[in-house]
Specification:
Elements (H helix, E strand, L loop, with lengths): L6 E4 L3 H11 L3 E4 L5 H6 L7 E4 L9 E4 L2 E5 L4 H6 L1 H6 L1 H8 L4 H6 L2 H7 L6 H7 L3 E5 L10 E5 H4 E3 L2 E2 L6 E8 L5 E9 L6 E12 L2 E10 L6 E2 L1 H7 L6 H8 L16 H18 L2
Parallel strand pairs: 1-3, 2-3
Antiparallel strand pairs: 4-5, 5-10, 6-7, 6-10, 8-9, 11-12, 12-13, 13-14
Helix pairs in contact: 10-11
Length: 289
């Protein structure tokens, strides 16, 4: 199928995009890389009269270090993250994770902001956002959205449910900031992927700081396993302040789906997904040795 007829608008700035959103309201959708929106429009599962292209806005395409944080514009492609020397040095989990997304074409056009805003339970970025304690930077016109022109939302509060985030229709996700991990920190992302789409059936993001042999700042987060990404806080609590050894890792792994409603679909049953969560948690944690 092909999308129904629509009007295309190319925004040159965030302010122009916000003006267009205000003008066309519920009849407008934002387009960045298009890998989430275009298939939905082609299948006519969603429809719009106005498409606002924000994919070429310069301020959304930057990767920089600022005040102890890595700041990534929402329009940065997965491929640009893979190739960024700054990301490779300071946040290798993002280099690894981005390189597992789709194929070369998807990585070269798909954007980090588009993926996060779409909040597909099988996407990879949400788990990584939780693991690195990311903050979402959101902008609206004054008096619109939350009532504030700019606001910040922690990843843990941003992802609210299946394809649902704390992002209003008249707001734009402009950037993601991540605290640069302290010395002694290792992080990684691993996943069991659907062979055709390369979406995650289960993905696991892990980060641990080692201090005198003890684990600190333990974060273990999952995509694909549930309707929304989550941190396995029961597993984290076992490792926090403890020795990094096989016994503690094994105990933590048993807690990774505790209190979680695990998904079941044609890709994997609830039982199999829960099993995969343990397997990939073990792989992620062992990779941090």
């Amino acid at each position: 199928m092909i999308p129904s007829s629509l009007n295309y608008h190319k925004a040159g700035s965030v302010e122009e995009a916000l003006d267009l959103l205000e003008k066309y309201g519920d009849d407008a959708k934002l387009l960045a890389g298009g890998h989430s929106l275009i298939p939905v429009l082609k299948l006519r599962l969603n429809d719009t009269e106005h498409l606002i292209d924000i994919g070429k806005i310069p301020e959304l395409k930057e990767i920089k270090e600022e005040s102890g944080n890595i700041v990534i514009g929402a329009g940065v492609t997965h491929g640009a993250i893979v190739e960024s020397d700054l990301i490779k040095e300071k946040l290798p989990i993002f280099s690894e994770g981005a390189d597992l997304i789709g194929d070369v074409q998807v990585r070269n056009f798909g954007t980090i902001g588009g993926s996060i805003a779409h909040a597909d339970p099988a996407s990879d970025w949400p788990a990584m956002m939780l693991a690195v304690d990311a903050t979402m930077h959101i902008q609206s016109k004054p008096g619109k959205g939350s009532g504030n022109e700019k606001r910040e939302v922690k990843a843990e509060d941003f992802f609210m449910g299946l394809f649902t985030t704390d992002l209003a229709e008249d707001e734009i996700l402009t950037a993601i900031s991540i605290p640069i991990p302290p010395a002694g920190t290792k992080n990684t992302y691993v996943k069991f992927m659907q062979p055709a789409s390369r979406f995650s059936v289960v993905g696991c993001a892990a980060m641990i700081t080692r201090n005198n042999g003890k684990c600190e700042n333990v974060r273990l987060a999952f995509s694909g396993a549930s309707a929304k990404p989550y941190r396995a806080k029961g597993a984290e609590s076992i490792l926090e302040g403890a020795d990094y050894n096989d016994e503690n890792i094994a105990a933590a792994i048993e807690k990774v789906t505790e209190g979680v409603s695990v998904l079941s679909d044609h890709f994997a049953t609830e039982e199999y997904r829960a099993h995969l969560a343990k397997v990939y948690a073990k792989r992620a944690l062992k990779a941090l040795n």
